[in-house]
Amino acid sequence: MEQTETTTEQKLMRTLMQFNKIHWHQPPVAGCKPSEVRVLFCIKKGRNPHNPEIKVSEISKRLRVTSPTITQSLNSLEAHGLIERHIDPVDRRAIGVILTEKGEQVVQQAIDEFLASTRGLIDYLGEEQTNQLIDLLSSLFRYFHEREANKSYASWNGEEEA
Description:
single chain, mainly alpha
């Protein structure tokens, strides 16, 4: 029985590792790297009706990367005319970021390209297999999310990890 589990584990690991070998993620959009596109999405999603700007620190927090990393991306995005930065008049240390019209267009282009890719996958797999894939990926996400939550709880509680 153990041999079967190991074989299944090995097959699963090999299958997951195959995704590293192919360029299955989206190609650059409008000359932006995938990391820069993620920053643009974060800026768009971070807006609210009361304040169209999002702080650099909030982008960093949401994307779980350091502020210097975000600053590098923002420098490139600003040079391409996709964002604007403004110093907060109340707290001059804080920088607010907004998308320019060109930035909005790049975000929409990225969405359109991603949806076209998704439609291609649905056409390839068919409706039934696509729904199975959605269910399996949702389960995969829940597994890793619960695993991470349990690790955090154990660490916070002073318990040893299993």
